[in-house]
Amino acid sequence: MKTTVEALEDNKVKLSFEIDAKEVNTRIKQAYKNFAKRYNFPGFRPGKAPRPVVDNMMGADTVKASLTEDLVNELYPLALDEHNLVPLFKPEFDMDTEIVEDNKPFSFSTTIDVKPSFELSSYDNVSVEIPMPEATEAEIDAQIILKATMVDGVYDSDPHKNPNAKRYSTISFDQVLSEQLGVMDMTAASMCRDNHIPVLVFSLEDPDNILRAVKQEDVGTLVK
Fold this sequence. Notes:
alpha+beta; four-stranded antiparallel beta sheet; four-stranded mixed beta sheet; 10 strands; 33% helix; elongated
């Protein structure tokens, strides 16, 4: 068997396979023996049914079609391992002939997408600067953000730990940030402040609170 690998553009690789006629004949002979053992052919012991009998009962091209599929499924993964290739998608194969034929070589090919490879120019530390995401008020297109939580608003301390904790009816983003009250992620709080988008924090334990919040009734804490 001969396998060739051709690197193409856009991280594609073409794999070509060719099996010489001698190997094809050997494989066909063995395939017929396997079918003769696997299936029951009246009048013949297992593995002893001649080729014409197998073809007559199974169909003229059944054995060869099965062998063709077996060859593709066998040789393709071996080539991937040999050349350290990792395909990104399921391959489609191009056959020179639909199935293997006696006394003729069999060849097929496939073009696969592979992961891109990179070469380091040096082993020095690489620094990457990631810009902070910023969204404008127009991009967010929100008048208010409703934040349903397990507590009924923003407190000056954890109400689960401090029974005397005070709940705010209104609080500023600056106070939330300076006191780190844990209303939301600090970055999100800063973005809401900078884009002038208030946040209403209320309890989700009462399902009617969502309707109250939409109706702008007195519920939870308004952060603005």
